[in-house]
Structures are given as C-alpha cells and as structure tokens.
Amino acid sequence: MTTLTHAAAEAPATAATTAPATPPTTPRYRAVPYTVRTSTCERRADGTLVLRSPLTPKATGRTGFAGFIPHWAERRGDLPAFCERDAHSGEWQRITWRHLWQQVQAVGAALLDLGLGQGRPLVVLSPNSLEQLVLLLAAEYVGVAVAPVSPAYSTLSRDFARLKGVCDLVPPAALFVQDAAAFDRAVGVVGGAGVPVITVQGAGGAVRPWSALSATELTPSRIAQVAAAHAAIQPQDIARILFTSGSTGVPKGVPISYANLHATAANLADMLASLAEQDEPPVFLDWLPWHHALGGVLNLGRSVLLGATHYIDDGKPLPGLFERTVRNLREISPTVLTSVPSAWTLLATELERDPQLAKSLFARVISFGYGGASLPKDVNERIQRVAERTVGERIVFGTGLASTETTGVGTYRNWASDDLANIGAPPPGTEIKLVPLEGDRYEIRVRGAHNFSGYVARPDLTAAAFDDEGFFQLGDAVRLVDMADPAKGMRFDGRVAEDFKLVNGTWVRTGAVRLGLVERCAPLITDAVICGHDQTYVAALAWPNVAACQCLLPELAGLEAAALVDHPALLAAIAERLRQDTGSASLRVRRLLLMAEPPSMDANEIADKGYVNQAATRARRAHLVEQLFQPDPGPGVARA
C-alpha cells in the first residue's frame, strides 16, 4: 500500500474524472444510448478512497414504481405491459397497461379489505407469474408490505427449515400461492389459523380465489380508498421484505422502504432516460426471480418505469429448463437482456449452432447484462463472434456490483470494455468507499438512499453490516482499473470471505482462480468450486457443460452428465487444459473432479440467480474435496 499512499498524497484531494460511454476499442460496438457517468475521487491520508458522482439524482415524482402505472395506462393503454406463456396452449397471455391499472386498483382494494398493511404483511411463496405481478404492484401501490420467498423453500425442501425461519421473522397475515396443491404442505407448515391463502388454482378452507380478488368491484368509495392509501405512504414505510442467506443458510430479512425504491427508480431513470423518451416501448425478456433485488426490484421496476413490454421467461439456466429460454428468444427480440454467467455460457453454445436464434436475439438488442459473477472471456468472445457474423457489430456487456441490502444499486459499467471484471463507477446518489487491503486491492463499501436501514429483528447483524460512516460493507474486494482515473471503473476481485490460504500461508483468491479455470476449460465446464484450504496445492470441483462436452469428440455424443464426468477422453481434455496453466501456485489448479449432480438449492449450494456458494458446496461435498487431495485420487480426477 506504500505506493498508493504516496501517489494519493501527490494528487489533489478531489479530482473529477469522466468515463466515456463507449471508450475507443478496435471492434465495432452497437451504439449504447445510456447516460455518461462522471466521478470524483476523495483520497484520504490512510489510503482510503471515496468515489462519488458530482450529479444529483433526478426526482421521479412518483411513490415507488407502481406510481408510474396510471401514466402508462393513459399513454400506452392498449399496448401489452406484461406477457406470460400459457403452460397449456403455449401461447403468450398479455395484460395491457390499461388493464394492469384496473387490476392494480381492484386487487389493491381487496388487499385493504383483508386488513393487510405495514404491520400485516403478505408472504408470497410461488414463482413469477402475471397474477403475482399484479399482486406485487397492487400491494406496493396501496402500502401493503410484501415478502416474496424463494419457491425452493416450499417445493424443494424436505424440512421447510428456511421457510419456517422466514415466517418466524415475518409472520404472514396472508399467503399467496399460484397452485394450492403444489404448495399445500408448505402452507400447512406456516399458514396458521385465520391466515387467508390467496390462490390462482385450487381451493380449500381458508382459500381466497384470485378470481374473486381481481374481480373486486371498483366503486367510487373503493377507488377513493385506494387513492387515499397510496397518498398516505411515507418514505420510511416498507414496500418489500427480501431475504438473503450467508453460508449458514439462515435467512436474513432485508426491508426495502419506499425511499429505497424511489432512489432505485431515480438511478434507473438517470441511466435509461433515452429509452423512456422513445415512441416504441422497449422489450424485455427476463427469468430472474422476483424475490431477489435484481429481478424483483430493478428489472421489474425498470419495465414499469419505462412503460415497456416485459415477457416473463419460463426458462432457467438449468438442465431441462434452458430450452424454454431458447424457444422464447427465437420469438422475442429484447431491447436489453440480462442474466447470469452460467446462462450466457449455455446461450453461447446455442447461438453458435442456431442462426435463427442469433438473428432474433441481435435484431433489437442494445446491450447485454450479467451479474452474480464475472463473465468468462471465452463466453464473451464466442457471443461477439456470432454478433459480428449476424449483424456486423458487437454488443456491449454491462455489469455492476450491488446487493440486496443496497436494493440492487452500487456500481455499474455501461460502456464497452475488454475487461469483463470491470464493474464500473457509482451512479448519482451513490458513494463508494474503497478501504485498502494488501497489495493494490480494496474492500468496497456502499452508501446511498437506496441502502436498507437494517435487518429484520437482528440488531447484531445490522451493527456489523455498516461501518462508522454508515457505509454498507459488501464483503467484496476490487482493484482500480486506472489508479489515476477511478472513473474508468473497478475490477471485481472476489469475495473477501471466500479467500483461503494454502498450508504454506499463500493466499488463494477464489474468485480469480474460479474465473481463470472456467475460461481455461471453456466451453467444457459451466462453473467451479475452488478447494485447497491448508493443502499444498489448489484443486477444484466443477460441473460439465453437457452440450459442449458432447460436441468435443464423437465418442462423447449423446452421453448424459453421469456418463460424461468419468469419461477418460473428457478428463484427458481437461487435464491438458490444466497443464497449459503455468501461473503461480496460488492461481494454478492441479486437480479437477467433474460432478453430475447439479448444485442443490435446498442445501444452499446455489442461489436462484445462479451464484454458487463456494463454502456451502465444499462443506456438503466434503468427501469429494477429500478425494481431490488423496495421494491416488482415482481415475475420475483430471490431473495437471
């Protein structure tokens, strides 16, 4: 840190810098009509840096996102607002902006009739749907707190431990499920006497059918009641309660206030102003779950803010489900497409072999986005080659760094960069503190009106989450792209808590090793877990990219994951890639074991967004980790 401290002392206390929207690059990129970011950098004597935008966030003049619905009902009343593919017919079902506004008022009135409000929250157990969309927006409009919960807690869990933990923190005054039969056991565990259960399908003793709520008559008195409830909302009132888990899997409740929503809306309005001004509404296709900040606040809110047409993607980056995403992308050409790196890895393979898919995807898109982890360079290059072949230009991949606690706002890069780990700069209204670590690394912290105020019923965790200046501690490490010009962005450098030491005391930067391994073995693996705590070398557990592995050699064609993971030809190909790495011991993976069993959501190995929990996976698969470090690990382990 000596060099940084001396350099900081020579620089002005505050320097303004500007990040170009599209820095000069050799390849040609499609123009990105996003607002240019600027930053100032405060350099402190102890080496700490504080980055800020000199601009003031734009006030949206609305309460949350739902307040924009009446505007779009008037301007784009007959245009589709949200669409969902019917599970039986396969056709797209649509709700127009005018109908959405009518439904928000009707369902909002029904929620008030049920006595729901700030102290009586609604808990949502099921996945994304048009009905849940109306419910979330109606609740937000009339000031009813909603706690959307991961459906996996109800459908994939055996003991419902995490669902019970959530409902202990936030006792439901009402429950919502799409299908009563599918959630019957879960409702029986957390429902309780006198708790109404709103269902779209199915019936029962305490069930309130969705059809009845959505058909609530909008009498003049009810319309006045809805308007009064909306007008009475205070900035500190809670709109959503989201849940986030650490390596232990114990749920932490994160209350998102209307002030947080307003700050998030201002951030989106600032960056996406040009999209809101276009006559043609933007189009989004999105699978990200609404019980997370990215899918349920940023992406859902973005569609309402911009008066977009939002298609609910019924696919996921999982075996047997990603085919649905591919089908949808053949039909829908999005303006922006955001997903997780594992999804982009799968999509790269599909784009390379499906020109019609590529033609549809690149027809309208102005930018891509990814989050949860860094995008492997190989995946980016493969997608860009298809883009150049299809439309003659590349597409910008944007990304950023934030968390549930910051309502999905932190840093963002919306300009072209060959450095895919570049997470950008802070938007107006956000301050980034960089606290020096060893070398040229910093711990990143965030402050802004979008930050939550504290965890539900956990003052101990709240106190530990913020520093003495009120910055939320993300637990991530970054490096500056350019020490002289911080507005050029920060490079994500892994989770501080995931790093470990080898037996000789050498630190292993898990994030960097994982990304390097996935890139080196591309396209044969989709993700990896880095191992080696107190060992003499680094090893890894990894999941195969089945489609890519099947194309590697004729003898692998048609084999499923269970047969691929032990196949000598595939292991030999991976071993050869491991041997090509001549880096330092702390970056070089010496052994790799492929796994057929996908990461378990119930065991907290993976989040809904696709982020693999390194610690939880190592703990659950300790026997495989042990195998990696045996003197003779067996034929199923690839060795450098």
TrEMBL record:
Every AMP-dependent synthetase/ligase domain range: 71-455
Region (Disordered): 1-29
Entry's Gene Ontology molecular function annotations: CoA-ligase activity
Residues making up the signal peptide according to the UniProt record: none
Biased composition (Low complexity): 1-20
Protein name as it appears in the record: Feruloyl-CoA synthase
